Amino acid sequence: MNLYTKLQQRAADKKPIRIGLIGAGKFGSMYLAQIPRTPGVHLVAIADLSPDTARVNLARVGWKAEMTQAKTAQEAIKTGATWITEDWLAVVSNPLIDIIVECTGNPIAAVEHCLKAFAHGKHVVNVTVEADAFCGPLLARKAAEAGVVYSLAFGDQPALICDLVDWARTCGFPVVAAGRGHKWLPHFSESTPETVWDNYGLTPEQAARGGLNPKMFNSFLDGSKPSIESTAVANATGLTVPSNGLLYPPASVEDIPFVTRPISEGGVLERKGMVEVISSLEANGRKIPYDIRMGVWVTVEAETDYIKNCFEEYNAHTDPSGRYFTLYKRWHLIGLEVGVSVASVALRGEPTGVATCWNADVVATAKRDLKPGDMLDGEGGYTVWGKLLPADTSVKMGGLPLGLAHNVKVVRAVKKGQSLSWADVAMDTSTSAYKVRNEMESMFAPAAQKAA
Fold first, then answer.
1. According to the model, what pLDDT value does residue 215 have?
2. Helix ranges restricted to H, 94-178
3. Chain segment 239-294, per-residue pLDDT in tens
4. Where exactly does CATH 3.90.1210.10 map onto the chain?
């Protein structure tokens, strides 16, 4: 029975999945736009630091004012409306809610939200992949111990990549490589919120009209978000990562099976079974026709002549050897697709991507020379970008995770392009986020080092 049929049955039985949403920004709003069109779900509550802004966003996506008049979760369930509050703890602790969708985009807050939700017996769909990047394996372990499901969010690229990897392995194909696309040139790693729009391809006026956040969009452009999402994929699928960061090989869709082969066979991979990101720009800045910038892909291998011949007989586009084939989705629809995760978690008890190991980490790396007294401003800012590294490399160097490089003071000089360590900053070790990360390293680092 498919998910939609199951949702229809829940609607017919008047037993909808009861959802609590934390964060009604851009991603959350995209999901909100789909909820009234999806049977068998009821958004009981929205927690947002600005309820008024949440209401504005609800109106923008087509919700009528009467749909948000409930004053409590109990009233929301009785009337079918939605309760809006500033109190996220009241939402995650309410026994009437089945599943939490975490959409804040704040990794430190998201970790706290997830852990509290687990403690109250709530499943979690975590849109804030930045949180998963710095402690996803621990969140997965804590959810399992609490008897609930923790999941990456379908619609965002990591969950879509995990879906393609699962397809490949379920069909019996070995995964050679998997990943997403990105608009990338090496100097983008130096981009700041002041330079983002020109590099991104928008005017400041267009960005202002759309209410776009330059720091958030810069986290995509400067390589932080691709590293974060590749980390989530590697830790969920067991794929390995490049030894010194993503390579961003330029390629059209047709060229992906050509470049995502091992170096020994004419590709760019150190070995088979890796994550990588494909650039939509040539090294000289020329836009590649039929690119994969907004999409996801997986490259698989035909291990026998019979399978290779099948690729040929069914006109599958392969590399010149005929052995490597790439399946792809050229687009992802972000928050518009989150309902797949909600339904999968609530109705099947299955995540759409969840950490199973600690293979990868995102380490804060200097955008410019940093001096003692400088304050780090996290992903997308002026000081650091996120570099994808193997987890064992990060552990050995004492790498500072990008998710904790927010409002932290530098205590010794760091050269541009150098990845930071814990010793380079004055970290507040009393925060719950630091304690969670420290716990994760204690729990998973031995396995990561053993794999080195």
1. 92
2. 107-119, 129-146, 157-171
3. 999 999 999 999 999 999 999 999 999 999 999 999 999 999 999 999 999 999 99
4. 360-450
Closest CA to 4 of 33, 29, 38: 38
| Distance (Å, whole) CA 298 – CA 421 | 33
Q: Kindly indicate the confidence band of residue 447, based on its pLDDT and cuts at 50, 70 and 90.
A: low
Which residues are bridge partners to 230 per DSSP? none
C-beta atoms surrounding 367 within 10 Å: 18
φ and ψ at residue 329, rounded to 5 degrees: -120, 125
Q: Per residue in 426-436, is it b (16+ CB within 10 Å) or e — as a string?
A: ebeeeeebbeb
Domain made up of 3-156+335-348: CATH architecture: 3-Layer(aba) Sandwich (3.40)
Confirm if 237 and 267 have CB atoms less than 8 A apart.
no
Pairing mode, strands 425-426 and 406-410:
antiparallel
Distance CA 200, CA 217 (A): 8
- Express each pLDDT in 20-62 by its tens digit: 999 999 899 999 999 999 999 999 999 999 999 999 999 999 9
Return the biggest CA–CA distance within the chain.
Answer: 65
Architecture, CATH, for domain 360-450: Alpha-Beta Complex (3.90)
Q: Is the pLDDT of residue 450 over 90?
A: no
Q: Would you say 103 and 128 are in contact if contact means Cβ atoms under 8 Å apart?
A: yes
Q: Where in the chain is the domain with CATH 3.40.50.720?
A: 3-156+335-348
Those residues whose C-beta lies under 8 Å from the C-beta of residue 15, and which sit 6 or more positions away, are none
Show the tokens assigned to 213: 């956040």
Q: Are 157 and 132 in contact (CB under 8 A)?
A: no
Query: Can you list the pairs that 257-265 forms with residues at least 24 positions away whose Cβ atoms lie under 8 Å?
Result: 257/299, 257/317, 257/318, 257/319, 257/324, 257/325, 257/326, 258/319, 258/320, 258/324, 260/176, 260/177, 260/297, 260/299, 260/324, 260/326, 261/176, 261/299, 261/319, 261/324, 262/176, 265/321
pLDDT in tens, 98-114: 999 999 999 989 999 99
Tokens linked to 192: 């700041």
